[in-house]
C-alpha cells in the first residue's frame, strides 16, 4: 500500500500559477499604462506599451484557463473550484460587457427623415419633398 498524502496534488504549482497570474497581470498592466500614458507631452514608448497591455490581457485571461485545466488533470478539488470560479466570473464579465455594448448601441438618437407636407405645386425646395 502507498502512504496517503496529506497535501493535494499540484497545489504548490497551482498556487504559484495563481500568484504569477494575479501579480503578473497587475505589474504588466501598470507598466503598459506607465509607458503609454503621458499627461504632458508624448508617450514614453507607445509600441512597448501596446505590447505590454496585450501580454497583460493574455496572461489575465489565459492563466486561469490553464490553471483550471491543470487542476482538473491533477484531480485537485480546491484548485478546480478556485480556477473554475475565476473562469466563470470572466465569462460572465464578457457576456455582461457585450450586453452593455449591445444595449447602448440601440439607444443612439437618429432624427426622423423630414416628411413633405407641402402641396405638390409648392414642393420645390421644401425638405423631404
Describe this structure in words.
By secondary structure, the chain is an all-alpha fold. The protein contains 3 helices and no strands. The mean pLDDT is 85.
Q: How do you describe this structure in short?
A:
The chain has 129 residues and is mainly α. The chain is 64% helix and 0% strand.
Q: What does the secondary structure layout of this molecule look like, with pairings?
A:
Elements: H1 11-36, H2 46-73, H3 77-105
Helix pairs in contact: 1-2, 2-3
Quaternary state of the chains: single chain
Instruction: Let me know the average pLDDT.
Output: 85
Order of helices and strands: HHH
Main beta-sheet strand count, sense and barrel state: none
What structural class do you assign from the helix and strand content?
A: mainly alpha
Key features of this structure:
129 residues; mainly alpha; 64% helix; single chain; 3 helices
Amino acid at each position: 500500500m502507498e502512504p496517503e498524502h496529506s497535501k493535494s496534488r499540484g497545489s504548490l504549482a497551482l498556487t504559484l500559477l495563481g500568484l504569477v497570474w494575479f501579480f503578473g497581470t497587475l505589474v504588466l498592466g501598470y507598466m503598459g499604462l506607465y509607458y503609454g500614458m503621458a499627461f504632458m507631452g508624448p508617450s514614453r514608448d507607445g509600441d512597448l506599451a501596446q505590447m505590454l497591455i496585450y501580454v497583460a490581457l493574455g496572461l489575465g485571461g489565459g492563466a486561469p484557463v490553464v490553471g483550471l485545466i491543470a487542476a482538473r488533470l491533477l484531480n485537485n478539488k480546491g484548485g478546480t473550484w478556485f480556477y473554475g470560479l475565476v473562469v466563470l466570473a470572466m465569462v460572465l464579465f464578457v457576456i455582461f460587457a457585450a450586453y452593455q455594448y449591445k444595449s447602448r448601441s440601440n439607444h443612439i438618437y437618429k432624427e426622423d427623415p423630414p416628411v413633405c407636407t407641402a402641396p405638390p405645386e409648392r414642393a420645390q425646395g421644401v425638405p423631404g419633398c
